[in-house]
Amino acid sequence: MRLAIIGTPNSGKTTIFNALTGGDYQTSAASSGQFAINSATVRVPDERVNHLSQVVQPRKSTYAQITYADVAGLDKGIGEGGLAGQFRSELSQADGFLHVLRCFDDARAPHPYQRIDPAQDLEIIDSEFLLLDMLAVEARLGRIESELRLKGSKADKNLLIEAPLFNKLRAHLEAEQPLRSLSLEAAEEKMIRGFGFLTRKPVLALLNMGDEAEAAPPAVQLPYPRAALAAIHGALEAELAQLDAADTALFMDEYGINELSRSKVIRLSYQLLGIRSFFTIGGDEVRAWSFPEGANAKQAAGLIHSDFEHGFIRAEVFRYADLLELGSESAIKAAGKQRLEGKNYLVQDGDIMNIRHSS
Q1: Residue 331: which residues within 8 A CB-CB, separation 6 or more?
Q2: CB–CB of 97/201 below 8 Å?
Q3: What are the distances in angstroms from CA 183 to CA 172, 175, 200, 270, 356?
Q4: Where would you tag: which of 28, 126, 321, 326 has the fewest CB atoms within 10 A of its CB?
Q5: CA distances from 45 to 51, 263, 341 (A)
């Protein structure tokens, strides 16, 4: 999973990035037409991997991973004329956005719009992304219309299907509605997947409270689906991320922090994007695999190796909860808790799988 951290200038994006990754990066900025980005991949904490490793005693344990990209500050007018190059690529390739909304005051880093208003900042970026998606849709419609006009009956027949879909997208954007609020059929979703539309992506809005541990987060409404909201004390937690476990626990207790943001954001991101985990276990490795909710056994096998998907025969499956209760794989088999599933079996969070496949 790759999440892009976005927000207006001086919203504290890089501070949040440091809090989530344990990094110590300086604030990034886009200036003189240059593009700045920080990127880091972190391990997804999972007590189930810890327990499975204790039971199996593998040579190594591999956790799921998540990548954060700290994108340079986005400002009014970025949508005019569209985006190109690495900037557009980084935003388009993200699975979702962490949208940092500034809720703290700091004279050392003045707010670019003179007042602290997270709702206004949310609307600014949403409006720019709407414009960028509109430009992309209109550009695609222009190419479709041109090819149909030039090639006539010899044009790709898929364009006849694509044209009404993109007209539907345009109408939705013209109504100033993000594409994440538009219901699409599975075939339509597949057709637009490669375009990386920005307003189609899920959004976790983070109210950045700075180091004001006692401050109450403001009321902010997210006016669209596939979105969630959380408060984070960015400056405070960036400092905590530099401490060892013992000191972190002491400071968390002092400031009344029950859950570090690095865990909270991962948990909320998994929920928002519908990401689940299954496991493979053996003497060589215990490993967590992330998969989208609704994936079947054959698709899950492909995450392990493409050959497993192509040669899929059956999946041996049992539940982590059963292993936790019964204590060993042999006990699970003796209790009849292990089962064989076919390619259309919908994988569940916490499944432990062994894929049978042809060479």
Answers
A1: none
A2: yes
A3: 11, 15, 11, 21, 37
A4: 321
A5: 12, 7, 28
Task: Give dist(CA 154, CA 152) in Å, integer.
Answer: 5
The dihedral through the CA atoms of 293, 2, 179, 195 has a sign that is negative
* Size of the chain, expressed as the number of residues it contains: 359
Task: Quote the pLDDT of residue 254.
Answer: 86
Report the percent of the chain where pLDDT is more than 90. Answer: 75
Q: What is the pTM of this model?
A: 0.91
Residues facing 68 on adjacent strands: 3, 40
Cβ atoms of 201 and 181 closer than 8 Å: no
Tokens representing residue 265 in the block: 């954001």
Give residue 148's pLDDT band: very low, low, confident or very high (50, 70, 90). confident
Sorted by sequence, the CB contacts under 8 Å of residue 258 that are 6+ apart come out as 252
Q: List helix spans (H) across 94-157.
A: 118-151
Give the amino acid at 182.
Answer: L
Residue type for 354, please?
Answer: N
- State how far the Cα of 337 lies from the Cα of 317, in Å rounded to an integer: 9
How much helix, strand and coil, in percent to the nearest 5, is found in the chain? 45, 20, 35
**Cα separation values, 256 from 22, 233, 356, Å:** 20, 12, 49
Q: Is 217 left (phi over 0), alpha (psi -120 to 50) or beta?
A: beta
3-class secondary-structure state, position 149 = helix
Contact 125, 74 (CB under 8 A): yes
State how far the Cα of 197 lies from the Cα of 126, in Å rounded to an integer.
Answer: 12
Tokens representing residue 180 in the block: 């994440």
- Which string of b and e fits 102-124 if b means at least 16 CB within 10 Å? bbbeeeebebebeeebbeebbeb
Report the DSSP pairing between strands 227-232 and 96-102: unpaired
Which H or E run contains 162? helix 158-174
Tokens representing residue 176 in the block: 């100033």
What is the Cα–Cα distance from 15 to 9, expressed in whole angstroms?
12
Extended beta strands in 103-235, E state: 203-208, 227-232
